[in-house]
Amino acid sequence: MGQFFNEILTRPILNLLMWLYDVVPGHDIGIAIILLTVIIKVLLYPLAKKQIKQQKALQDLQPKIEEIRKQYKEDKEQQAKELMALYKAEKVNPAASCLPLLIQLPIFIALFHVLRTILEDMDLGSMLYSFIPYPGTIDPSFLGIVDLQNPNYVLAIAAGIVQYFQAKQIMSRGATKQPPEEVKDKPGAKDESMAAMMNKQMVYMMPIITVIIGFSLPGALILYWFTMSVLTVIQQWYMLSYKKRLEDQQKPPQEPPALEAGKAS
């Protein structure tokens, strides 16, 4: 299994990275990693696009989901049936948003092995294809300043900040909105408030986890994660703004206030 993983994922990524390192002016491993991340992002674009659509659709459904949970809070079986019917009617699959993350995990693991191989020169020559030139000793710095072989706290914090904006960007305002004071004591309001609090915690917890893990990983891996997160934020911004423009175009034009006043008279 390890040999299979090596041949279909680790070795191709290593050779692509070494080819980029060879053609990049100045042979900067950091720039090569950024270009590799862009290529991986492009290859995963269809899955990432589907993930963003599913996440946004799931957020938009939160009011209906909370209503079903309140209505059938005493009957969990019926609640599950109603939720499944809602997902089917709205063509939303909650598990679909996890697929790109599951696919990125083995890529991340493969990249970890790749960076160990090239930065520690662990039998690099035997991993290269015949048409990829042997790079010799690789300088583990980015732009001659950032050490990518050891943990880099600045990169880790930057990755956490971008992760925060990535999560915040996809969150629907309605999903994290707390119930008004006058309805907090009504039945179901407590559950709604709890769900909103959990959603809000996730927005903050994921960046914190990213920073903590980033403090123990090589800077090269965090540079990959940071770049991937930035590209995801750009993709989400484009998709969500494009959807908003379409919705605005589909809205019927409103009559000017003067015409409405004339009709009333």
What does this entry look like structurally?
By secondary structure, the chain is mainly alpha-helical. The protein has one domain (2-247). It has helices at 2-23, 29-43, 45-60, 62-71, 76-90, 99-119, 124-127, 153-170, 189-214, 219-250, 257-264; strands at residues 141-142, 146-147. A hairpin with a 3-residue loop joins β1 and β2 (146-147). α1 packs across α2 (29-43) and α8 (153-170) packs antiparallel against α9 (189-214). It is elongated. It starts with a helix and ends with a helix. Residues 172-196 have low confidence and may be disordered.
SSE diagram, text form:
Elements: H1 2-23, H2 29-43, H3 45-60, H4 62-71, H5 76-90, H6 99-119, H7 124-127, E1 141-142, E2 146-147, H8 153-170, H9 189-214, H10 219-250, H11 257-264
Antiparallel strand pairs: 1-2
Main sheet: strand order: 1-2
Shape estimate = elongated
- Report the portion of residues in β strands: under 5%
Tally of structural domains:
1
Task: Please state the structural category.
Answer: mainly alpha
**Element pattern in H and E:** HHHHHHHEEHHHH
Helix content: over 70%
Please give the alpha-carbon distance between the first and last residues.
80 Å
Mean pLDDT: 76
- Can you summarize the main beta sheet? 2 strands, antiparallel
Number of helices: 11
Question: Got a strand count?
Answer: 2
